[in-house]
Specification:
Blueprint (H helix, E strand, L loop, with lengths): L1 H9 L4 H13 L3 H5 L9 H10 L3 H11 L7 H13 L3 H13 L5 H13 L2 H10 L9 H11 L5 H11 L10
Helix pairs in contact: 1-2, 4-5, 4-6, 5-7, 6-7, 7-8, 7-9, 8-9, 8-10, 9-11, 10-11
Length: 180
């Protein structure tokens, strides 16, 4: 920008720092950039990967993670980026967006189930309701019994909405005892 150029001309001492700040700001991806490609995410996987890693806000990162679910399933770079981002993410909304994208790409695994199970007890109620509806993707998987146990524990929640969502999700699991 012009302001950066002026700063560089005025101070040789601060030159490296100014260049670093300028370049890091330039690499951030905005929500507007992500929303501009919402109809064609497969054609903009690189932007979405950048948004996941360098989004200018949590909203941007969540949008990028969600749209990566619509990209080419054969793209190993996307699979690896989602897995790595899931391991590093601490925000519950971002973790759910990543898990949902992995599920949408048919890449859910025991780590995805573990992430969802972890969210089921610690996230805000409205997010836990969404987690319940994602659990049916683990029917018949090695994580089925852990998912069933987590859903059963949600049946004692103070939230009627969460209890209902857990009960509906449990109906998708054929091996749940009728007493549950």
């Amino acid at each position: 920008t012009e302001e950066t150029v002026v700063t560089l001309q005025e101070s040789k001492v601060g030159e490296a720092k100014t260049v670093l700040v300028s370049s890091s700001l330039a690499s951030l991806v905005s929500a507007e950039q992500i929303l501009a490609v919402v109809d064609t995410p497969g054609e903009h996987a690189e932007l979405l990967l950048n948004g996941l890693k360098h989004g200018d806000s949590l909203e941007t990162q969540c949008l990028a993670a969600t749209l990566l679910g619509d990209c080419d399933r054969a793209d190993v770079a996307i699979r690896d980026a989602l897995q790595k981002a899931n391991e590093a993410a601490t925000d519950v909304y971002l973790r759910l967006a990543i898990c949902d994208s992995r599920i949408q790409r048919a890449e859910q695994d025991a780590l995805t189930a573990k992430c969802l199970i972890g969210l089921l007890g610690k996230a805000p109620t409205e997010l836990q309701v969404q987690v319940c509806s994602s659990m049916h993707h683990f029917v018949g998987s090695e994580s089925e019994s852990a998912c069933v146990a987590a859903l059963e524990s949600a049946l004692i929640s103070d939230s009627a909405e969460l209890r209902a969502s857990a009960a509906v999700a449990l109906g998708d699991f054929p091996n749940v005892p009728e007493s549950t």
